From TrEMBL:
Name of the protein in question: Cupin type-2 domain-containing protein
InterPro entries linked to this entry: Cupin_2 (IPR013096), OryJ/VirC-like (IPR047142), RmlC-like_jellyroll (IPR014710), RmlC_Cupin_sf (IPR011051)
Residue stretches making up the Cupin type-2 domain: 88-147
Length: 192
């Protein structure tokens, strides 16, 4: 399954902007800039970069920042009904997520490494740094296939990093039958 390779990608920061009393753009000091990491099973770490609880987002009076702050102490489900989720996922070398489906439209971007998108039909696509997957409510898994890097003649396994932006979708129907969310085993609650 996975190994215990030390994490060889850097910690991430998230910079939230806001306004001062005069309406000038400033950086918010409400939250630390370093993103907290939630360790989950199957060789992955999740970082909740940002989330909103409604769409369009309510930016006045720091409403969205306050809501996000509450999600940091009590993480949301995989998708937030009526809102958006921006999540960073770090995958250990060789890790494969469980097969899962969300009732959402997701954009997955490879930030570091190489990751395979595996569909329940058996189809697979290799995503390299900068590649984007548009995930439309299909049953899928992710597999870190990043090649080892030679260090002093020795192959060192590499972590992979992806960014996902998830937004809820309406019910997904195939031949008139609804497809339901399947998130068992991925270490995150069902959608909220």
């Amino acid at each position: 399954m996975t190994d215990k390779t030390p994490k060889n990608i850097r910690p991430l920061n998230r910079f939230i902007t806001t306004h001062d009393e005069a309406g000038k753009a400033i950086f918010s000091s409400t939250l630390p800039e370093t993103m907290p990491v939630q360790k989950i099973g199957d060789g992955a770490d999740f970082s909740l970069a940002y989330t909103t609880s409604e769409f369009p987002a309510q930016l006045s009076d720091e409403t969205d920042v306050t809501n996000y702050q509450s999600y940091l102490s009590s993480p949301p489900g995989i998708v937030v009904s009526g809102g958006t989720v921006c999540r960073i996922v770090d995958m250990q070398p060789g890790a494969t997520s469980p097969m899962h489906r969300t009732v959402s439209l997701d954009y997955g971007v490879v930030l570091e490494g190489e990751v395979e998108l595996v569909l329940d039909s058996g189809e697979v696509r290799l995503l390299k740094r900068g590649d984007v997957a548009v995930q439309r409510g299909t049953n899928h898994a992710w597999r870190n296939v990043t090649p080892d890097v030679l260090v002093d003649g020795v192959g060192v396994p590499q972590w992979a990093r992806m960014m996902y932006v998830l937004q809820p979708s309406s019910e997904i129907l195939v031949e008139g039958k609804p497809l339901k969310e399947v998130v068992d085993g991925i270490g995150v609650r069902s959608s909220t």
